[in-house]
Amino acid sequence: MIREFAAAKINLTLRVGPVRPDGYHPVDSLVAFADWGDRLSFEPAETLSLDMTGEGADILRAEDGNLILKAAEILAGAAGIVEPGARIRLEKSIPLGSGLGGGSADAAATLRGLNRLWGMDWPDDMLAGLAAEIGSDVPACVLSRPLRMRGRGEIVELLEHWPALNALLVNPRVSVPTGRIFALYDTDPQRIGVMQNPVCLASGPAVAVIASGRNDLQPHAAGAVGLVADVLAALGELPGAHPVRMTGSGSTCFALFESQAAAVEAGRQLAAGHAGWLIQPATLGGTETA
Questions:
Q1: Is residue 111 within 8 Å of 123, Cβ to Cβ?
Q2: Is 267 annotated as belonging to a binding site?
Q3: Other Cβ atoms closer than 10 A to 4
């Protein structure tokens, strides 16, 4: 059996440009990946099948165009495998519509897992190139390392000398449709017409670099979904939380802390008053020791 981890994706910063003629928005984002997420397993079989358990599994079963099976079919087609087979199992932890790239992470893990199961031995950069056919965030999720993501998401640049970060992830158990938030962004007369650079990577320590950035979609999500604003406010009141920001188009928000112990304690304090929220301390993996 082959096992793969699908790490939750965190947009540490996110700048968004005006919609392009092809319908996509250009983005410029610093991205890190958590040590928390979904888990997939792959076993040999004569045909492709997918079994799902956990967070939102019932909803996913009812949807057409599952990204996991799409990834499997695209990989098989690129490799010339006429009758692909695999028994795929997904243990879902990442909430749907949470801004954590769960579907993209699952598709990326599928590419990596089937690459191993089928004995292809393709390098990650080949898989990342193929991943752009599946979804905008999938190339970044294939690599699952600190990176800068540009274009519509298909242009990725790994970050060097980036530390691991101690984070608290908070989701208020509400799904936020990505299209709705981008539509609000597009109709906002106050938004900047031309995308600005996200941050200067040479401007200082990682936390300072992140704090100097922003998420262009955050005001629109917080204005449209009151619980997102509530989460941001609650995180902002926790001792040592800096910076506090939303990831992706919402609804998950995060705060960074100086230590893992501080993040865990902050999560404990927050959970005492918000029993219905998903509150998850996490380490955002780096390329060096924090």
A1: no
A2: no
A3: 22
Tens of pLDDT along 233-273?
Answer: 999 999 999 999 999 999 999 999 999 999 999 999 999 99
Give which of 255, 254, 279, 284 is closest to 268, Cα–Cα: 279
Residues sharing a CB contact under 8 Å with residue 63, sequence separation 6 or more, in sequence order:
none
**Could you tell me how far CA 168 lies from the centroid of its own chain?**
15
Alpha-carbon gap, residue 193 to 16, rounded angstroms: 10
| Cα 238-241-247 angle, rounded to 5 deg | 110
Domains of the chain: 2-158 (3.30.230.10), 165-284 (3.30.70.890)
Whether residue 137 lies in the annotated active site = yes
**Is 223 known to sit in a ligand binding site?**
no
Q: Count of CB atoms within 10 A of residue 23's CB?
A: 7
Q: pTM (2 decimals)?
A: 0.94
Out of 51, 137, 186, 230, the active site residue is 137
Q: What tokens does 273 get?
A: 């008053």
Distance (Å, whole) CA 169 – CA 8: 10
9, 38, 106, 216: the active-site residue? 9
Residue 191, number of CB atoms within 10 A of its CB = 16
Q: Is 250 labelled as part of a ligand binding site?
A: no
Helices (H), the chain: 57-62, 67-79, 102-117, 124-131, 138-143, 178-186, 206-211, 218-224, 226-236, 260-273
Among 63, 160, 169, which residue's Cα sits nearest to residue 106? 63
CA gap 156, 173 in Å, rounded:
30
Q: Any catalytic annotation for residue 70?
A: no
pLDDT tens-digit readout, 57-102: 888 887 766 899 999 999 999 999 999 999 999 999 999 999 999 9
Is 96 annotated as contributing to ligand binding? yes
> Annotation-wise, does 103 bind a ligand?
yes
